Amino acid sequence: MIRAYTFLLRPTAGQEAALRAMLADHCSLYNGALQERRDAWRHSSRTSIKYGDQSAQLKEIRAFDPERQGRWSFSSQQATLRRLDKAFQAFFKRVRSGLTPGYPRFKGVGHFDTVIFPKDGDGCRWDSTPNDRQTRVRLQGVGHVRVHQHRPVRGRVKTISIKREGRRWYVVLACDDVPAEPLPASGRIVGIDMGTVHFFTDSNGVHEPNPRFLHAMTEELAKAQQHLATFPKRTRRRTKKHRAAARRAAKLHARIRRQRLDHHHKTALTLVRDNDVIGHEKLNTAGMTKGPQPKPDPDNGGAFLPNGAAAKAGLNRSILDAGWGQFLTVLANKAESAGRRVIAVDARNTSRTCPDCGHVAKENRVTQAKFECVKCGLVENADRVGALNVLHRAGLVLCDGP
């Protein structure tokens, strides 16, 4: 199995300055490579430059600017150029598919937050010891940085990434050959129905509360964002107060993100420990949170008809606050490690199908919380009905084979 481990770094003041310089120099390399591609296409008869062409120039760049580019890992700079190449590959793929292209953009220093080292031991080495307090990661040009290792690392470390989030620094280890840790069989199978009122409802009728972390911090976050909005959007030099306001808003968003991820891990772990098989709906979260299309008013040129955008925005915010996609990804990974099985089933009509007689009708869903079958008269909680139908469909998948 392939797994990623994220640990908090504890750099000294000097090491933190070196880490910021490393990000800034890699950002400069990324922007310079992007500018070269733009100029070659516009001014050189539409010449296309590839990753191999730019990677071959790295030795000359490092020799020309040893103070900024020469002191960092060669392989990490190659990874930065690959990152740009992937952006262009995705751009051309969208062009061929007829989607909105989204040409690769230049990165500001504050928006370039990750440096990747493709191989452990090449410019970056993970020095793990039995004593967590002595764990270090060695970075070329930075030194041995202390790591807060809160869990053991299993498998073989393949790539190492250094990531900045606000004023925090993290090391991300991508490991392969991670051994599974199967749990003893529980003999139970469960279906879950994701929601916004409740985080999910299982087929046993248990409602998992939705913590709604974003909603809980709405007032505090609104004040921080309103204060940030009082500054001019485009200033040639950001002031100290503007940077402090931006850090405040970013800090709140980071806290919400960490709380949500922690809740997902703990909730998924409980499900995996208690059940051998877990069924859930196959959800297209991106499509579900897409804004409604505008409706032009044919009788009034330049005007639009109501399209429910305000109500849809509230629903979208609740879905994104719950983080269904992230939770289901965490659940699948934990189930794989524990030797459990997660089955994604078709989500169509799970809340309109009677689990007793199988009758499908829109009228079965009386309200958001109440289900009443118009054929057999079954009355049940609508979310539990969805979970029961998910459980039934997951059982059919089990009967059909592995």
Mean pLDDT: 91
Quaternary organisation of the protein chains: single chain
The total strand number stands at: 16
The shape, in one word, is globular
Order of helices and strands: EHHHHEEEEEEEEEHHHEHEEHHEEEH
Concise synopsis of the structure shown:
The chain has helices at residues 13-43, 51-55, 58-64, 74-97, 213-216, 218-229, 240-274, 285-288, 309-322, 324-338, 382-400; strands spanning 3-10, 114-117, 124-127, 136-139, 143-148, 156-165, 168-176, 189-194, 198-202, 207-209, 277-281, 295-296, 304-305, 341-345, 370-372, 379-381.
Helices, strands, pairings?
Elements: E1 3-10, H1 13-43, H2 51-55, H3 58-64, H4 74-97, E2 114-117, E3 124-127, E4 136-139, E5 143-148, E6 156-165, E7 168-176, E8 189-194, E9 198-202, E10 207-209, H5 213-216, H6 218-229, H7 240-274, E11 277-281, H8 285-288, E12 295-296, E13 304-305, H9 309-322, H10 324-338, E14 341-345, E15 370-372, E16 379-381, H11 382-400
Parallel strand pairs: 8-11, 11-14
Antiparallel strand pairs: 1-5, 1-7, 2-6, 3-4, 4-5, 6-7, 8-9, 9-10, 12-13, 15-16
Helix pairs in contact: 1-4, 6-7, 7-10
Protein architecture, described:
The protein is of the alpha+beta class. It has two domains: 3-176, no CATH class; 189-400, no CATH class. It has helices at residues 13-43, 51-55, 58-64, 74-97, 213-216, 218-229, 240-274, 285-288, 309-322, 324-338, 382-400, and strands spanning 3-10, 114-117, 124-127, 136-139, 143-148, 156-165, 168-176, 189-194, 198-202, 207-209, 277-281, 295-296, 304-305, 341-345, 370-372, 379-381. Strands 2-6-7-1-5-4-3 form a seven-stranded antiparallel beta sheet. A five-stranded mixed beta sheet has the order 10-9-8-11-14. A two-stranded antiparallel ribbon has the order 12-13. Helix 1 crosses helix 4 and helix 6 (218-229) runs antiparallel to helix 7. The mean pLDDT is 91.
